[in-house]
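User: Please predict structures.

Assistant: First:
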Amino acid sequence: QVQLVESGGGLVQAGGSLRLSCAASGSIRSINFMGWYRQAPGKQREVVAAIHSGFMTNYADSVKGRFTISRDNGKNTVFLQMNSLKPEDTAVYFCNINQLWWGQGTQVTVSS
């Protein structure tokens, strides 16, 4: 059983910052992929950022230069630092491990 616990969402004004965290626990042999996705109302879930076992990172074009994904291997935790937030970043953010396990989601709301 693998559990992902997310934290750090909330309400922020445009231009502000938030930092999301996702801690994984349970029977995980190795973590090769850690990612953040988001889903806005009426839209499909989309990948925001991902970090791979070699620490290679990928970002959606819409967040490049504003968001930074990082991981703490010792604690099986992945972070998403979000700066210069825009109203269009409003969504429920989900973390994902190994493209298998999902967190419960955390709401991020950016007011204009």
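Second:
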Amino acid sequence: QVQLVESGGGLVQPGGSLKLSCLASTTIFSSYTMAWYRQAPGKQRERVATITSTHTTLYASSIKGRFTISRDNAKNTVYLQMNSLKPEDTAVYLCNAKYYMDYWGQGTQVTVSS
């Protein structure tokens, strides 16, 4: 069983930045494909960004050029740097870990509002 704990969410004004972190409790973190998803009220869960064990990254078109996913295997942590935030980025952001099985964090709220 892998536990994922997200942090870094909050309230930010449009155009601002936030950096989310997700700490994973596993000894083989480097083997996992990690991803960030988001879920806004009344909308389907959306995969925002993915980073594989070989550090290949993939982004949703809605955030491309504004968000950056990265990982630090020594710290068992994946990050999501979010710049130029828009009100439509408001959602609960969830961390996902995949290696034969899927694991999810509880999520962290990001609210973009003036």
